[in-house]
Amino acid sequence: MTALLAAESVSAGYGDSRAVADLSFEVAPGEVLALVGANGAGKSTLLRVLAGAHRPSVGRVLLRGEDVTHVRDFERNRLGVCLVPEGRRLFPSLTVRENLEVGAGSRRDGRWTVDTVVDALPMLGDLLGRNASQLSGGQQQAVAIGRGLMSNPEVLLLDEVSLGLAPIVIDELYASLATVRGGGLGIVLVEQDLERTVAVADRLVCMLEGHAVLAGTPGELSRQAITDAYFGHEVASW
Ligand SMILES: Nc1ncnc2c1ncn2[C@@H]1O[C@H](COP(=O)(O)OP(=O)(O)OP(=O)(O)O)[C@@H](O)[C@H]1O
After folding, report:
1. ABC transporter domain location, by residue (predicted)?
2. Domains of the chain, first to last
């Protein structure tokens, strides 16, 4: 079966420095693939390559079998790939509703509207008329995810959605993700919290200095193996 999204031998970097090295993987419809790795491992760069925001130096990105390597980010968004970047990047002077509606710009058909986004992310229900500048970090993150959903993506790329948030807010966001992933949406997730990643992911790819050093399902990989991969040779308990 053709994968929803595939990276084929992708390398990418900045000038002479290589951030992603010869990475390959596939994401099936409805699957959550987690990219795990320490700071600087290349996870955000890889997400940007998948989104069309960073050109790989080598390799290909395929969407439903079509080569989209040279398709730019805005066009790739129209084709169904949506990046929710680290740092949220909302429009502070717009209301929550307006920020969500900005996400619908590409006008793909699908189930996501302001109403269905609020169903999936209930914390937004009372906030639609509020300016984004007046939101807590968790509320902003929920808007950023909701804005991504409004483009009716087939692939959602989530970069550190829980960064800086209180555990209770992260719990709420992850509970929402469980409802979001139905309907064949593929998710590529970058998350610092290994425990949470293992709980939510169908498959893990552990990155070290740009390379994929370990891959498999949470059932196949021991915590020790994931931790060793995360830190290189160093062993830590978690
Ligand atoms: N704009 C940039 N210019 C130059 N080098 C960069 C740039 N962005 C990232 N890098 C470098 O590329 C490598 C991979 O960075 P990247 O942000 O992809 O890693 P990451 O795994 O997402 O890290 P983090 O968890 O800290 O966000 C790092 O060595 C980083 O310093």
Report:
1. 5-234
2. 1-25+36-41+55-69 (no CATH), 88-155+163-185 (3.40.50.300)
